[in-house]
């Protein structure tokens, strides 16, 4: 399937909210009350370890492909629980696949993330309190994500053993979700080819199993090369690499008027010289392009490249471009979404202590809006959201090769923006860990039901096949490049990121 046809297939999924796909009678086999109680108790008993792991990873605050301590911690927990762990899969040293297999049966995968975001070093305080020497923070709550997913997996594995459930449970330790596209390499390596369903969760400001479309994206770095010179005595001998970056940025900003709706273009200058009186011979700018349709992303990206070409010509410089990330748009699965939603409702919302509520109220003073804190006690209505107006995720690529379902739980203070110091603060407190435990319970109940519901897995696969079209063939948006293991490291004039 070409990218344009892939985009058309994605757009057609909007019909899912009003029109049923090919009917296949299938309802998840509910767990017995004792089995459900067993799983929920197992997660509750493990809540201390989930919290401990989440706080350690919060303190590690390791960015993409540098999550050595975070990955090792989760691996050790899984090994101790009886999982077989393969490390360094798909060419990524901090990636792993942990497996527990008990005979022939369904293969269910749980996703785990653990990378932090640069520039968000923040204490677990309700006011802005930067931490000296800390260059990153968990503004997307991935410290909670990885810890809860592992906690859920341990509970499911124990349930499988005690109830002689056949099948294979896997945990995919996936690094560098924030721009590094770690899961893309897992998919490209075929590590999901035999998986019957993939389940995941994400920290949020609400409790919801609504399924939806994310934005496809391509990200990469444009490195300009010029000639240094004394900016006052010999400016004619200099060719400013920073001029190249700035002319490119101006051209791209004019481009914004002439791109399709919902296209997003972001950039940050990562290197622009060291002193005003030295014409910089190296400069780097880091770009993202997003849109619900991957074909549009490809087209807009090519136009951004032309802006770089023009800028180099105009400034007498040269440039190199490196695509460092690229993901599809998320493909929702209604069949699995309804199973996830039912289990989230069985788990219920979240209750905060007076101390947690006071923390949240203080933090909300820094926000532009202060939604009702009681919302964390509720479960949002189930639906399929097709506006594609959110961010991007490398979970999307998995969703095009195996049925995939996720949920959000309230780990942040309502009203908080994504990728903010407020999220870092909440993710380092019991507000965050309570939401993580709720997520672990929902993941565990959902996985258990899927292990004993082959008809649901069959229907989910049929839905996936119908959504993506009969001639779909997966091709990564970032091509065949190896993982960009250095994409978070400081730029250098040598052409790489070291």
TrEMBL record:
Position of the signal peptide: 1-28
Key word Ubl conjugation present: no
Domain Peptidase M20 dimerisation: 218-309
Keyword Signal in annotation: yes
Sequence segments annotated as region (Disordered): 475-498
Gene3D superfamilies the UniProt entry points to: 3.30.70.360, Zn peptidases
Origin: domain of life: Bacteria
Family matches, as InterPro entries: Amidohydrolase, Aminobenzoyl-glu_utiliz_pB, Bact_exopeptidase_dim_dom, Peptidase_M20, Peptidase_M20/M20A_hydrolases, Peptidase_M20_dimer
Keywords for the protein's UniProt record, in alphabetical order: Hydrolase, Signal
Protein name per its UniProtKB record: Amidohydrolase
Source lineage: Bacteria, Pseudomonadati, Pseudomonadota, Alphaproteobacteria, Caulobacterales
